Amino acid sequence: DEPYRWRGDGESPAREVRVRPFRIGRGAVSNAEFARFVAATGYVTEAERFGWSFVFHAFLPADFPDTRAVTATPWWRQVYGADWCHPAGPQSALEELDNHPVVHVSWDDAVAFCEWAGVRLATEAEWECAARGGLVQKRFVWGDEFSPDGRTMCNIFEGTFPTENTAADGYAGTAPVDVFPATGFGLHNMAGNVWEWCSDWFHPTFHRDGPRIDPTGPSHGQMRVMRGG
After folding, report:
1. What is the mean pLDDT of residues 26-47?
2. pTM confidence score
3. In angstroms, rounded to a whole number, what is the distance separating the alpha carbons of residues 187 and 126?
């Protein structure tokens, strides 16, 4: 076999680590929870301060003006007025989305929420341990089959990406934080729905030679780790 070549995402080869016992929320932070934080502290998110955020193109009205897109992923469009309480742009609101996960939240925003709530972001190793729910070397957080017995197990884009979403899982956008079967640890949406911030800086080769007990990621970097999604 050819020598292994490290991929840019750092997802392999598999390596075993140990983490001390920890507690973690059963699901992502909901809009209702984030609204309580904002009401209590007056916090203003970075998207609100910048005046814009990126929105998936399919969530914009057909007559929405052309806006700048991300070069490598043009389905993400720059939308002025998009923020946590206007998830699809200024024409949108949180009506009927109280129990959906909050979006347009930066890593700094997430840390501010955690400080208010008296918790912290999970490390990448803790997040993955939690997501696995006690399973070992399974392809998904529920097992090896994507849809066992034809049952949809998470909220994910299904169809022809990025133009046609069949919404076969029941949701064209985000889903409530507590839908779909829980993992073996009782956690919801550890696969699908939205990306979730971890505390670690990202580096594709850190874990090759890094610590095997309670790893916390490199000491510095340019991007933070996201999981789920």
Report:
1. 98
2. 0.93
3. 13
